[in-house]
User: What shape does this take?
Amino acid sequence: MRVETCFSAAGCEIVASPFLVGEAELGKLALTCSEDWIKSLPADVIDPTGPAPVSLEILNGGKFYYCQSAWTNVYPDNPCGVLKLRARRGHASGETYGGPANNDKDLEDGMELYQSEGSDWCVRLWEIPDELGLTGPVLVGDTIGTGTTLAGVLGWLTEKMVAAGSVQDIHVFTIAGAAEWDTDGGVVKKLTPIDEALAAHGKQLTVTFCNARYALQSNGTDLCPCPEMGAAWVPEALEIVKEKVGDPAFLKQLKCAVWDWGDRFDREGQGDREGPKHHLTEIKEYFEGQDGCPQYILEGIETRLAAL
Assistant: This one.
């Protein structure tokens, strides 16, 4: 497995400005991040003149990485396709930490299940296209916390490719992600069997982090950007964020590099949640309780709330 970290000024702005929401401003930055990632991929990893790639969108969060558009913007003569599906992690047992219990039971019509060998975690997949039609590299944009859902989806996809006799390289990009986690090893450990399965067919898995490998906290959700808490940054990116925030000590109080990515957009299937309004209300309550919070963050939250 090839694990890299690329620089993106747009990614710095996302981390330092938790009040950014919606496709017009946050989406524009996310697209730029993905373009920076595409440009960073070396020729020995992906050939832009080779078979056209396909962007795998694990809805809803993956949709807002805009990998299909990013690739096509960078390489317009070799446009990227798209493959969309939905997935949800859970436990096969009665455990409820981090996901619902008995996730392997009572699957609805059209749903499929993937469970890693020896793991209680399992992933439901649905809204799966009848034909995957993969003939080129697979691009995957996703926020990475524990990496459980991502590993399940890619494990399922790899099995499908092997069965179809059409195994492709997989390239993962995360605007905010953690490589390791003390609780269970984290995403790199979980993706190792997938990397081995691809390698057996002469293919490879790459994982690229944008600007930093953040420190996943014990709750399995918060991606802390503070180096003192374990975040490992590209030096240039860290300096940009520190200058924006003002007081470097406040990086610990930023709490999370990305918060709930899908919540920051107007997405389908919100249920009783309100997307950007829910996100802004949540961070307003949090940052108003933090001593020394930069004024631009508090003003940015109020400005976006007033505009909704």
User: Anything to note?
Assistant: The radius of gyration is 19 Å. Residues 71 and 138 are 11 Å apart (CA to CA). The mean pLDDT is 93.
